[in-house]
């Protein structure tokens, strides 16, 4: 009971400090709020709009083996009698209208000139023997791609569309080659039907199949634009808030444990040791105050982030387990590092160096999401520090991973905590023995 009295006294002292309260609750929420409004403005505007790429097409294809593709195969497309017409029909389809603006020309020279004069960004020149080469199993059909060298995004989109088309056409030639290798002379005349059937499948002629060359889908398919925007925003802000909570929980753990050193310097701790209360009880109360202070901080931040920003932390059991892991880990880490300090003046090194470096390492995965190298570091280097395990567990919970996937992360975090706590308590006991 005396240990709880000591713990409550120390907690009261901590929460009376305006600086401590702002540091524990205000700073994490303010930093997250800054990202929330910054990314919220971007998401609310629909992210960013890509301007349509201006494409000029010179279809010089003189045709080859006859086949036809019905307009319903290509939304907004026209009946195609040659491979060149098929390419043009696809690029002029309704599905491509939001991405590219197509104009036609009769010569390769005029297409090149349009790009050189910046009237178009990309020129697509379909050679006159395109259909013939496509029909010849020994030839390779190709399309000339000519772009403005000063541009990147628009031409890259156009190149991706053409590559997707040409990959599909390569499949047609493979199908024809296989058919001709296996067919006898009487069946070779059916090669055109093989091509037709493959195109039927590739371009989704069947009413039961709809595979578009470029498909843009929302995460849930039925979500409104506002819901999609909110989900995108929370997928960015949620991990940031989790990282901020872990980062500052470790600061609180270290700061609360530092009170032991401050009371030693103020001579209040030696006076406590002269009272009938045992040294073990006094140290237990001091350590308990560290755990309870961090516990209040983590619980308040979890609830406040949910209410203020709508962050979904996941199912109640995984969140509770990971919150407990963060509390135990941050508290024991604070006890551990303070046990190596001779006085509170050395706390500057602790706060400015150790906690900042280990905290940033632990959050690599959050603040460099789009970097493959950082992602690799997030899965390796960040796990060399206890903050990395805490962040990993929170992200797993927010992603809705099953409990059996989260438990190994929690176990690793508790192993870190046990090691820190045992060493820290042992050193403090030796110090005041």
Structure at a glance:
By secondary structure, the chain is mainly alpha-helical. The protein has helices at residues 2-15, 18-44, 83-91, 108-116, 130-135, 153-182, 191-202, 225-265, 268-273, 279-309, 316-338, 347-362, 364-367, 372-379, 386-398, 403-431, and strands at 53-59, 100-105, 122-126, 144-147.
Mind explaining what this structure looks like?
The protein is mostly helical. The chain has two domains: 2-43 and 225-431, no CATH class; 53-202, abc type-2 transporter like fold (3-Layer(aba) Sandwich), CATH 3.40.1710. Helices cover 64% and strands 5% of the residues. It is built from 16 helices and four strands. It has helices at 2-15, 18-44, 83-91, 108-116, 130-135, 153-182, 191-202, 225-265, 268-273, 279-309, 316-338, 347-362, 364-367, 372-379, 386-398, 403-431, and strands at residues 53-59, 100-105, 122-126, 144-147. The protein has a four-stranded mixed β-sheet with strand order 2-1-3-4, with helices on both faces. Helix 3 links the parallel strand 1 (53-59) and strand 2. Helix 2 runs antiparallel to helix 8 and helix 8 packs parallel to helix 11 (316-338). The longest helix has 41 residues, at 225-265. The protein is elongated, with a radius of gyration of 33 Å. The chain starts with a helix and ends with a helix. Residues 42-48, 67-77 and 202-222 have low confidence and may be disordered.
